[in-house]
Sequence to fold (208 residues):
Amino acid sequence: MKSRACVVTLTLVAANALGQGTFRPYEPLPLEPPMPIVQELPPQGPFGTVNFQTKVAGEVCAPVFDVDGITPLAGCGFKAQLYAGLMADSLAPVGSPVCFKTGLLAGYVNAGEVTLPWPGGTTVFIQMRCWTAPSETYEAAMAAPGGKWGESNVISVKLGTPPLETAPNLVGLRGLISIPEPSTAALALLGAAALLHGRRRHKTCASF
Fold:
């Protein structure tokens, strides 16, 4: 009986010793970081365009004159740029400033197609603003001593969708007279200049 008991005891001790060498507590495998979810934005249509041309036969006649109301602005001594927005009282510059034409087309702008930051088919409000160089912006010209500037009327335009539609003309845009830095003399002459401008504009538009 003694020898059998010893065998059992030795067997259990040996088994326990082997077990201690192989047993490990449960450790979960590390989880991989989740893959980022990429949200695909719906595709947007092409941005809309307008035709920045201030003399289009039968549709647009918007010459710009100097403060005398007679001399049309010509060359790169003057700049013009479109301002646009979804509300008539909140307009921002679009496109780049451009020079005026010279010769028989002095007073006019022919910058071609201008892309606006809204999809084609959107109805926006547009205004033309002009000023004297070397000021790079309309706002800078207003602050510069001796600067001249002017604003057209505000019109609404439905933007064209390229390449399906051509850029719409600025129908309804009217010409303007540059305004000098405010002074008593300038304000006194402004009324007379406006009369001259009206006569000059009628003659120019009738030349289509």
The radius of gyration is 38 Å.
